[in-house]
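Long-time lurker. I teach an intro course on protein structure, and each term I like to show students one example going from raw sequence to a predicted 3D structure in token notation. This year I'd like something fresh instead of my usual example. Would anyone be willing to generate the tokens for the chain below so I can use it in lecture? Attribution to the forum is fine with me.
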Amino acid sequence: MGKEVERKFLVADPAWRSLVEAHIRIRQFYVAAQPGRTVRVRISDGGSAALTLKFGSKARERDEFEYPIPLAEAEELMAFAIGRVIEKTRHHVRHRGYLYEVDVFGGVLSGLVVAELETPEDVPDEMLPDWLGREVTGELRFYNASLALGGIPEIAA
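-- Reply from a regular --
Happy to contribute to a lecture. Here you go:
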């Protein structure tokens, strides 16, 4: 079992784009979701897939279990998706030794750009990159399960 400890931010400035080290095209969907627990399938770059179970309702920390699954089975499971299939490109961007995952959403979520910082320690605000906007950690409407199952959040950095 792993612990997922993360902060989420809206992205206010495109300056991060010149710092991208890598990117991954992602399709993901949920086959089960309720408060405090989700079961997600993620397909990365059309070549690999994973099943992820997340438990917990704390804003910054959840228990996470992730298992690789055959790509064909992931594609088949899509028929059981609840809500919408999320399409996004995840960009890896480093700033002051920390890895930020910047998700640029597509489809009906186009225009939404969210950065995640997974680190167990608190990073002081003065060490955060200038291109980050408002912190949305704990705002459920910006979490992927809510994006798949709920409405489209108003985007305001």
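Some talking points for your students: The first strand starts at residue 2 and ends at 11. The longest helix spans residues 71-77.
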